C-alpha cells in the first residue's frame, strides 16, 4: 500500500513540476514579445490622426492613416493608406489633399508617398488641380514636390503627362521633366485669367 501511495505522490509531483515548467515558458515567451527588437517600431497605432502646427500656432498639415508606425531612432514615421491635408500658411485653410497606399515622413520633414499617389487641390480656382503618380516626395516646410516616376497632371485648361516632375504647391507650379504630352483648352485658361483679373 505504501508503494502505491508513494508512486501516486511521485506522479502528482511530476505532473505539478511539468505544469510549472510549462507555465514558466509561457511567461518567458510573453516577456520576449514585450522587448523591442532592433528595426521594430517604437510605436504602432491603428486608425490614428495627427495635426502639426507651426511656431505661430497655424496648421501646417493634418495626417490620418489606417496604421502609423513611429521609429524614434531614425525619426521616421510610416503611414499605411494615408490621407494628408496641407494648409495655406496665410489663410490657414486646407489647400491640398494627398492620398496613397503608403507614406513616410523623415526627420527633414520630407513626406514620401508611394502606390496610387493622388494630390488634389481643394481650392476650385487653383491653376494646378490634380497630380497622379506612383511615387511623390513633398517637402512639408516649403511644399516643393518632386518625382522621377510617370506623372499625369491636370489643371485649369490643361492635362499633361510625362516622366518626372518638380514643382511647388504654394506657387501652384509643376514642371514635367521629359516625354511631355499636353492637351490645352484655351477657353478655360482665358476664363480663369479673367476671373483672376477681376479679383485684383
Summarize the entry for a quick read:
Component of the lipopolysaccharide transport and assembly complex. Interacts with LptA and the LptBFG transporter complex. With 200 residues, the protein is an alpha+beta fold. It is 24% helix and 52% strand.
Distinctive features:
200 residues; alpha+beta
The CATH superfamily label of the largest domain reads Lipopolysaccharide (LPS) transport protein A like domain
Percentage of residues assigned to helices: 10-25%
Order of helices and strands: HEEEEEEEEEEEH
Broad structural category? alpha+beta
Tell me, what's the shape?
elongated
- Under the CATH scheme, the architecture of the largest domain is Sandwich
> For the report, how would you describe the main beta sheet?
6 strands, antiparallel, barrel
The total count of helices amounts to 2
Q: Give the CATH topology of the largest domain.
A: lipopolysaccharide transport protein A fold
User: According to CATH, what is the class of the largest domain?
Assistant: Mainly Beta
Number of beta strands: 11
Instruction: List low-pLDDT spans.
Output: none
The multimeric state of the shown protein is single chain
* Beta-strand content: over 45%
Distance between the termini: 109 Å
- Mean pLDDT reading: 83
Number of domains: 2
- Order of strands across the biggest sheet? 2-3-6-7-5-4
Radius of gyration: 28 Å
Amino acid at each position: 500500500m505504501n508503494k502505491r501511495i508513494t508512486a501516486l505522490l511521485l506522479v502528482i509531483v511530476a505532473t505539478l513540476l511539468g505544469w510549472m515548467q510549462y507555465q514558466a515558458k509561457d511567461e518567458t515567451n510573453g516577456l520576449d514579445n514585450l522587448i523591442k527588437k532592433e528595426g521594430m517600431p517604437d510605436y504602432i497605432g491603428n486608425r490614428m490622426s495627427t495635426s502639426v502646427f507651426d511656431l505661430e500656432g497655424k496648421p501646417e498639415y493634418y495626417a490620418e492613416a489606417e496604421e502609423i508606425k513611429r521609429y524614434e531612432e531614425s525619426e521616421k514615421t510610416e503611414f499605411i493608406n494615408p490621407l494628408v491635408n496641407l494648409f495655406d500658411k496665410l489663410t490657414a485653410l486646407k489647400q491640398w489633399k494627398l492620398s496613397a497606399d503608403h507614406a513616410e515622413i523623415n526627420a527633414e520633414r520630407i513626406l514620401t508617398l508611394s502606390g496610387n499617389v493622388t494630390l488634389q487641390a481643394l481650392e476650385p480656382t487653383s491653376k494646378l488641380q490634380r497630380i497622379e503618380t506612383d511615387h511623390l516626395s513633398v517637402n512639408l516646410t516649403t511644399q516643393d514636390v518632386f518625382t522621377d516616376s510617370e506623372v499625369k497632371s491636370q489643371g485649369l485648361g490643361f492635362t499633361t503627362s510625362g516622366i518626372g516632375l518638380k514643382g511647388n504647391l504654394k506657387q501652384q507650379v509643376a514642371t514635367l521633366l521629359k516625354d511631355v504630352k499636353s492637351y490645352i483648352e484655351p477657353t478655360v485658361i482665358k476664363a480663369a485669367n479673367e476671373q483672376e483679373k477681376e479679383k485684383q
